[in-house]
Amino acid sequence: MATVSTSLTxxxxxxxxxxxxxxxxxxxxxxxxxxxxxLTTIGIVVVLLTEAVIFFADPEVSVIEFFTxxxxxxxxxxxxxxxxxxxxxxxxxxxxxxxxxxxxxAAIFLSEYATPRARxxxxxxxxxxxxxxxxxxxxxxxxxxxxxxxxxLGQDTVEFYNMASAGLVMGIMIVPIVASMSEDALSAVPRxxxxxxxxxxxxxxxxxxxxxxxxxxxxIAASVIVGxxxxxxxxxxxxxAAGAGPNFTFNPFQAAETMTGYIxxxxxxxxxxxxxxxxxxxAIGLVLFFITLALNIISRIVVQRYREVY
Amino acid sequence: xxxxxxxxxxxxxxxxEIGADxxxxxxxxxxxxxxxxxxxxxxxALVALIVLxxxxxxxxGGMVVYGFKIDPLxxxxxxxxxxxxxxxxxxxINDNVPPERLAELPEELGADLENLTTDELLNIIYAEVPNVxxxxxxxxxxxxxxxxxxILAQNLTTxxxxxxxxxxxxxxxxxxxxxxxxxxxxxxxxxxxxWPLYPSLFNRAAIEEEIRINYPDAEYGFRWWLTxxxxxxxxxxxxxxxxxxxxxxxxxxLISLTILFAVPIGIAAGVYLEEFAGKSRLSALIxxxxxxxxGVPSIVYGMLGVAIFVRALSEFTTGRAFGVPEPLPNGRxxxxxxxxxxxxxxxxxxxxxxxxxxxxxxxxxDGSLALGATKWQTVWNHILPVAFPSILTGxxxxxxxxxxxxxxxxxxxxxxxxxSDPNSLFSAFTVLxxxxxxxxxLPEDTFRNISASAIVVxxxxxxxFNLTAIILRNRLRKSL
Lengths: 310, 480
What we know:
The complex is a heterodimer of chains A (310) and B (480). Chain A has 310 residues and is mostly helical. Helix content of chain A is 71%, strand content 3%. Chain A has twelve helices and four strands, in the order ββααββαααααααααα. Chain A has helices at 21-57, 63-68, 82-113, 116-130, 134-153, 163-187, 191-199, 204-215, 217-233, 236-241, 259-268, 276-306, and strands spanning 3-4, 13-14, 72-73, 78-79. In chain A, strands 1-2 form a two-stranded antiparallel ribbon. Chain A has a two-stranded antiparallel sheet with strand order 3-4. Chain A is flat. The radius of gyration of chain B is 37 Å and the shape is elongated. In chain B, α14 (281-294) crosses α17, α17 (334-358) crosses α19 and α18 (362-370) runs antiparallel to α19. Helix content of chain B is 66%, strand content 4%. Chain B has helices spanning 2-10, 22-57, 86-96, 99-109, 118-128, 132-135, 145-155, 158-167, 175-185, 197-202, 204-214, 228-232, 245-276, 281-294, 298-312, 314-317, 334-358, 362-370, 375-404, 407-412, 432-441, 445-479, and strands spanning 61-68, 189-194, 220-224. Chain B has 22 helices and three strands. A three-stranded antiparallel β-sheet of chain B has the order 2-1-3, sandwiched between helices. The two termini of chain B are 64 Å apart. Chains A and B meet through α1, α3, α4, α5 and α6 of A and α2, α13, α14, α15 and α17 of B.
């Protein structure tokens, strides 16, 4: 037993670490909270997998058919996921076509051209707009965008439910995300690079696009990938505006149902817990989960590998 | 030769004409054009969002034309034709038989109409006039109060009659109030056509003209859909009378429970990751895991919720395990919804807490530890209080996200039509965004109006939360 006896103390001071049970209890509960998040992920994977396995175990369903068939009609035995996937991809592509130019331009303007005072007002407005609930965008798509498209392109070309409406409004929804993340990436580029470029006689536009943008490309790419991932997982806009029936088509003006729209529609109806419909939403959810997980991992790898360190 | 170079050196250079080089001018022009287009893109994005807000606001009020779903003529008492005098019967024939036919009749019958007996006049009426039953309907104005009450008794269900009588006894109502009650309850006064807000405000005369032409006798006026009655009213199946109360109560209950679950666990996990965890593989795994979770689509959380809380844990979420009376058949209750939403916003709160704690100066920690405090004492007494405003910002952002999320709750099973306000943890529920979704899907225009009104309520809530969080965050950045 290590003890120390000094002239200041009458007795002996033990140098053994004093047991503090409360401290240990706290530490344990904090660790438990940290582990809780792992529990969530395990829960998601387990739930999706078990129900999806039940779905694939059904005699009517074959895995090959699931990934290659172009008709989704479980009641007639056709369970091809391609119509849902193409609808998701088409709406998200339209969305990113809108969001990338607008968001990136807004970001470049904010980080390169705007005065600090303007930026102090505009950036919070952008963040505020990122908080608008997606159901509001869905309402807007049905009540404004669809009639607008119909009047611009013809009442017959554009169906009442169509992918283009949903895609365009989704693009507007994603602009704040792309703009915000890109602006962070652009602002992180050191001033010295810009100053050097100006010193060599370049205009502001040339500096922005030829010097700053390439330096921040990893962050911008990450913002695009995150935007695509958001678009893939978006439900309410497509549930209201894109349509309620799976349809394998590449015409964006037709109605089609996305993966998320399908899950929302089936869950909203009367659902018996052991039916093929119930297990099918988990199979589709599994596909969706893996796609968005892959996109998020790719975005992180892109940032790590291609980030220029100053 | 040194002299020449010295001369060259000493002589001032020719003044350089800025922009003399044509390529410089071109590049500057391109630069200016580029600046304008970059600014325009920002404006386009903002304009799109403003258009969205204006479009929503456009639907929360406007000119409307009222009509009745039930024909008033079918419910009022009528005088039997037999009791009418000859002049009155003649009057009816003259009013309701087409002129050509009126001319033919005397020839067919061999006598002028004035000379016919009442029976013969009655026969003519039954033969020639449609809608005989409603001909002699007595308008509301001439009916006595008791007769109005009788109309209510005949046309309402007994329960509804007693309910209304209990709320406001019929004997105490004036004639006008009774008529209004009949119009609301029996005739189902409804909106036949509505106009958007901006034309109604700025172009009212043109709309009124159109109403005069197309709906000559109808009642019309300006109607606000977003009213206090709407916000506090019950949910009904008709847009004109429906209200937001169950949805608002559901949202408030849901958010309160969500915060109760998510905030303690979220802050604890954030504290653990920043203060107590070393650079171990486990903590790196937890960190990566949290980032991945924050990118998972919200509907996947809904599926997790339905499988675990609604199905697997249904004993607890329906309340059966706690002996709750009249439990729901499945676990689609508020508590399932709250647990699901808690899982959804947990990564947000954890990441925000981590950033908040990271911003606390290291000197504070070191000083506290140097004075002999334990790690937890340091955290609880020094770090958390300093980091709290930032953590609060994260919580506010989490709340605003949870209030606006619809997809996970659709999967977990929020109803779009609840008949009574949710009153316990284990009751069925609906929330504000679900109600908006449910109304927006219905075909009638009037449901779009109340959907838009509900959206305005939702936006006010969400945007004020977000604004608070942003202002808080900006203030903190300045003070640090």
